[in-house]
Amino acid sequence: MSNSFKSFVKALIPKAWNTEIQEYLSLPGQLAKTKQKLNETIRLLEESERRVKNLSTLILSEKYPELQERRSPKNELNAREFKLYSQYGEDGILLYIFSKIGTTNRRFVEFGIQDGRECNSANLSLNFGWEGLLMEADENFFNAAKKYYQNMLGQQANRVKLDRCLVTAENINEKLVNNQIEGEIDLLSIDIDSNDYWVWKAISVISPRVVVVEYNASLGDEAALTVKYEPVFDRFEKHPTGFYHGASLAAFTQLAKLKGYRLVGCDSYGVNAFFVREDVAADKLAAVTVKEAYYPSYIRVQRYSQQEQWEIVKTLDFEEV
């Protein structure tokens, strides 16, 4: 259609109709935005319902502990597990740890958060007023996390800063400094399914009182092993099971000792290990050995036994530390 014909048609239409026509033409876009907002609201309501159920379960289990099914708690940390925002029982463990050692500035750093809805610092920032830094490499996850915390925190959203970046051993300290995170903080949480060991080893500009790191339970409770360092790392490219990632609990515990931390336990799903700085733990939280703390991966043993997992990964390119 030529511009002259468009002008001719436009001239025939009464000016009073223009606004109504524009509003009509914009309806599909408005409906799409409304649908998007509605879907997001439904998702938030479903999340809220799940968290209320989790909280109700916690209250009932505290009141009637004899009816609560627990998976072989190895120490007091495991008896305190519960989930509100964390992946498994990390929320309860962290609250227990900080109830024993107290807090200082209530600042945190966490990387490998995906969409931010299910991570170790979420409960602390959303329910206890903590502030800190979240880092995520994936663009879609990062955008979803940013929107989520803006919705959840509203005018206080600036308490939680988000940075889209691929964390490496080479850039981690620079990233922290650029985001005004230096010195002592209360919590560091690492879950990048790749160079976790090497990144923690490289960190020097902060001194977390508590460190949570995901260990690779498929490597067992004896060998001190980590993946070879590669700045860009995809565990599923390394092996279709995704079992080639991170480091063993023994490797992390060894690194922790070099950095001045003690292992105080692991969650009972065999995912995260909890370390507390020696001067902070003191006589408040006892150190435990790798064998005392270790749990196999609850998810992976549904398909492969612990021995089968080890047989899958033992010939891959790990580095003994």
From TrEMBL:
Coiled coil: 31-58
Keyword Coiled coil: yes
Keywords: Coiled coil
Tree of life domain: Bacteria
UniProt protein name: Methyltransferase FkbM domain-containing protein
Annotated source species: Oxynema aestuarii AP17
